[in-house]
Each structure stands twice: as structure tokens, then as C-alpha cells.
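re: that complex we talked abt at group meeting.

here r the seqs, copy pasted straight from the sheet so there may be weird spacing, ignore it
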Amino acid sequence: MTKKLTRDDLLTAYRTMRTIREFEERLHTDFATGEIPGFVHLYAGEEASATGVCMNLTKDDHIASTHRGHGHCIAKGVDPVGMMAEIWGRKTGTCKGKGGSMHIADLSVGMLGANGIVGGGGPLVCGTALAAKLRGTRNVSVCFFGDGASNQGTIFEAMNLASVWNLPVIFLAENNGYAEATSYNYSVACDTIADRASAFGMPGITVDGFDFFAVHEAAGEAIERARNGGGPSLVEVKLSRYYGHFEGDQQTYRAPGEVQNIRDTKDCLLQFSRRVTASGELAQADLDAIDAEVKALIDGSVVKAKSDPKPTEADLLTDVYVSY
Amino acid sequence: MARKITYQQAINEALDQEMARDQNVIVMGEDVAGGSGAPGEQDAWGGVLGVTRGLYAKHPGRVIDTPISESGYVGAAIGAACCGMRPVAELMFVDFLGVCFDQIFNQAAKFRYMFGGKAETPVVIRAMYGAGFRAAAQHSQCLYNIFTHIPGLKVVVPSNPYDAKGLLIQSIRDNDPVIFLEHKALYTMEGEVPEELYTVPFGEAAVVREGHDVTIVAFGRMVLKAQEAAADLQKQGIHCEIIDPRTTSPLDTDTILESVEKTGRLVVVDESHPRCSMASDIAGLVAEQAFDSLKAPIRQVTGFHAPVPFSDALEELYIPSAAKIVAAVKSVKEYK
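got the structure back, here u go
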């Protein structure tokens, strides 16, 4: 069993989920103005997953993320101010404006990168986990991937490899029901993604991704097992995204009222707030204070991003090689 | 420096000495030890052609057999490199690029740039390439041009045992992803190789033979074919200068241009298919940057725009021969 969450843990969980939500809602609003360049895939609605998983990790553990990666970045400790500047294409961004939304990475906090290639992260975490195993550290690696990526060969190869080498890897399937516009019901051949674990000789579990506590506990158990040499696990988190595959997606493939219904009844922040205030573990005032703090942080990040300089021609050809 | 070893031994020695020097160096691939989990010998093969033989026993735990799962283990090598290991992954045949290219060109090659210069991926991917083994269309290609096209990758094509050792050591120590390509037909080639560790720098061509009539730029095994042709041409009074770029990325353009400025004539010899090839790349470079020096059209001696055939009768026609190089050199020398 994972250890009981302290008051500080609960505050951290709420702050992280709220930061992700505010970050994404703000991007949704700003994207509509046409000022934000490129492709942006929002994580709003899925916050309990990144937060519940990453609260079990240290800076020295690694995660690989997806094209829908902002939440994973924030939960793993990447600075949201730098992230906002990156998404706005500024030189002050996390990746100097050379990566953008789909490629935010910060190896100093164990974040191996959002990834524009669906399923690209599976093999990579086998490598970080292999390094941890060879060096005898207790670090683990988590591969976040979606229901779409669950059908990619790279994920199958990585699960087999992790099992064959008994690596400390958690395959964290975020099943939000849609691979772009194609339903999980259509594209995944088995009932649950977790069912596939047995094919690779590892435990698999499906949890409610709207429930921070359920994700935190299930991921915590898998992570603890991996740290102790027990090998890889597959954790499927069932959740929903509140926006389209990318910003601008009209989501005509979704049922009328589908998202609103989820927002009203299942939302992870809503459920979390109700639970911790009902139990008396946190007061509404605690949550309100965090809301205000986070809003100021994100507002400030946008103001800064808008006024920060863009990269210049002198930056075009730097960072291709260490030397050439 | 009288010791002679083969190209294959030179590669094995570079791996062995670098693994001994740096604990972060690991070797992984299909059957790089061989016999894992099998009832017989634990170090059964040492790679499909025995290049890594003996390393398993000398470096316990650091020579790792993988499933036949190229995306999985090449990607794992890249991931391990991201956190400070120096993996050498063996792709076996370069033709297997097709099942793992994403990890190489969308992941490893782009991390440094995409992540704003804050990521290093010091991985080496070794692979055999080239025709001449009756190995047919899926085990005989060159493909170095494909890697060369991708910014972020460095690409190495040693033509002899000395360069193979020095370039492989440089590849392992280099902080960028390196594709290290070994021509199968060169494995048994002997040459003088120092026992100590040394590096051959990237982007520095070797002038294999000096001459003033025609410049021949050749890659990998084609350097040997060019030497054979040049010896023949010498008897006919034509003096060739042979340049072996040794790495296609970075490419030592200065040495090529300086030589063409001297000779005024260029023949490029490239075993790969002719379209979008190293041959066409260098022909384009020289046409653009040394046009005024040229006394004759540039000639390219290459394979064909066809898969590598199986039958020896066809494969020998496919591979650029010394005779074809001789003919090309004479045509540019005699051009009026």
C-alpha cells in the first residue's frame, strides 16, 4: 500500500491539477485569438492522471509523454512559465522556442519530452529504466501513452522488452476514448487496454482516471513494485479530454452534451474538492487560495510570453550538433 | 606499428577497449552475445558475423541480447543515452532500418535541437551494409545517404581497419547520435592497427592517393575499387587522386573542392542507388562551388535504380567495378 496522503500532499495534488487546468483553459482561450502558432493538444480533463502518477515520482525518475503533454510536464516539475513561452514560440521557452507544444522536455527534472510521434516514448523509457537497473539506482520510468498509441507496435515491443529485462517501467495508458476522431471501441480489439498486460507477463489494472486517489494508489503500487525490482506494470486510466484532439477540432464525432455531462458529474477537480472538504482534510479557503495563486501564475506567464523575444536568425542553426 | 588485424577485429577491439575505459558503454542487439536463455553456450555467436565475440565474458552485464525488436531496443539505447549511458546498439543489417527508423530520425536525431540544446544522445548504432554476399534485396543495401539527409545524425563509413577502430572510438565518445556502417565485404580486410586507443576525427577526409589528373571520391568498399582502378590507370599514364571522406555527415567538402580545383575532373564512386545519393550530392556540390575549375562533366559510378539482385551473375553487374571506374576516369580525362 502507498503511504497516506498528508495535508501538504493534498495541497500539492490540488495545486498541480489546478495549474494544469488553468494552463490548458487559458491556452484554449488564447488559441482562439489566432496568436498561438502550430498544433496544440490540450490535457484539460485528464489532470488526475498526470498528477496521481507523478506524485509518486522523484526528480530522478523519468517520464516519457505524448503530443498531449502539458499536464505531464507540469506534474513532473517543468516550469509552467517557460512552457508558456515555449508554446508562444519565444526564445525564453523551455526549449528556446525550437520545440513548441509537442516537444517540451526538461531532462533536469526527468521529463524526456512530449512527443509528436504516437507511441514514440515506449522504447525510450526502456532505455532510461535499463540505465537505472545497470547503475543500481531505484529509479523508475513511466511511459504515458493514449488509447491510440496502445495499438502501436512500439508499445508492444517496449512492453515485451521491459518484461524480458525485468525493467522498472510503468506503462501508463491514458484511455480518453478517442484516437483523434476514432473511438477506442472501434480501434482496440480487446475489452480493456489493461487486458494486454498478460500477453507480456506483467500485471495490468484499469482505474478511474477522474479519481485522483484511485490513480495515485494504483500507480503508487506499480511504481513501488518496480522500485523494488518487481518489474513492469500496465496501468490503464480511463478518463476524458474536454477539448478536441487539437485546438480547432470541432469534435463532431462526440455525442451531444458528452463533455458537459462529464464536466458536471465526474470532473477530477470537482470530485477532489468535494472529497477533501467533506472529510475536513482541507477547507474551501485553502482551495480558493490556490485557485487565486495559480490564476496569477498563469496570467503572469502569458503576459511574459507575449512580451518575451522570439529567437533570431542566429539561433536557426545552433543546437543541431554538439560540434560538427 | 607492424601489427595487422582485420576490419572486424578492429571493431571488436574498439568496443572492448572503450567498454573497459568507460562503464557507461554498453553493447546491445540481436545475438550480440547469442545464446541468452538457451541450453548451450552463453556467448554463442558474438553477433551474426561474430564482430562482438568475446565481449560478453569480458564485460559481464554490459553485452545485452535483445529480442528481435528493433524499434524497442534501438529506442531503448536512445533512452539510455539520454541519461548518460553510451550505448552501442547493433542493428545487424542496415536494411532493418525500416522497422526502427522513427526512433532514429524522429527521436534521437532531433532531441538536441527540439529540446533547445539541453539534451544529449550519445548513442552509436552499428550496422552492416553493402552488396557482394548474394544476400539479395533486403540484406545488401547501402542507405548511408538516407541517414546523411537527416540533420542531427552523424554517419560514418570506414574503408579500412585503421579507420574502423579510430572512427568507432570517436563515435562512442561523441555526444551526438552516430550511425556507424560496416561494409560486410571489408570484415576480412587486414591492415595495420595500433593496439592503443586513438580516435579518427569526423569530417576529415583521407587523401588515399595523390594525383593531378582526375579526382575520385569514393566511399567504404568503393575506396578499394577506386584504388584498383587507379593502379591500372597509372600504367596508362593517368594519375588519379582518391579521396575517402570517411564520414558522410559531417562531410569534408574542403578537401573535395581543393582536389577538384587542382585536377579539374571528378568521378564519384558510390555503391548505393544513384538517385538522391552521396554521388549526386557531391556532384551537385562541385558543380555549384567549383564550376570554374571543371574541365569535363562530372561522372558518377554507382549501383542502379533497382533493388540489389540475388544471382551472382546479376549482383556482379550491379556493384560498381574497377573497370567501370577506369572507363569513367578515361572519359573525363579524354573529354574535349
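couple things i noticed - DSSP finds eleven helices and seven strands in chain A. Chain A has one domain: 7-315.
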